[in-house]
Design brief:
Elements lengths: L1 H11 L23 E11 L5 E9 L2 E3 L6 E6 L4 E8 L2 E10 L3 E6 L9 E8 L2
Antiparallel strand pairs: 1-2, 1-8, 2-3, 4-5, 5-6, 6-7, 7-8
Length: 129
């Protein structure tokens, strides 16, 4: 359950804007106007997943990372801020949709597919500093 919440939050930005870290970093398309440190909070509206999970995401030169997370992402953030991505970890896939504002906020929804746990909810993002 915690792993699903981790995926959701990672997804959260662009999560959306997020990519795997660990030993390697994968490039994800995120326009430079979203560079900075972001806090993502994923909340569960339905299902047995964690009620709320928070993560810190760093976006620099259009690359996003969440230190210590082993996730993959397909998708990104459009220049207008539309977030559309799927966060993947093993057989768990968490599609996320939403939007980011270059002024430092964002929100959207998430809903896993193909996993053992059925949960859904929303996410919010706030740029730090």
């Amino acid at each position: 359950m915690t792993r699903v919440a981790t995926l959701i939050t990672a997804a959260g930005l662009m999560a959306a804007a997020v990519c795997p870290t660990g030993a390697a970093m994968r490039k994800v398309h995120v326009p430079n106007q979203y560079d900075g440190s972001w806090t993502i909070v994923a909340t569960t509206a339905q299902g047995p997943c964690s009620a709320s999970t928070s993560y810190h995401v760093q976006i620099k030169d259009s690359d996003a990372s969440i230190p210590g997370q082993e996730v993959d992402i397909d998708g990104g953030v459009s220049p207008s801020g539309t977030v559309q991505a799927t966060i993947i970890s093993g057989s768990n896939k968490v599609p996320i949709l939403g939007s980011l504002d270059p002024k430092g906020s964002g929100r959207g929804t998430w809903r896993p597919s193909g996993g053992l746990v059925e949960c859904s909810g929303g996410w919010s993002a706030r740029r730090e500093g």
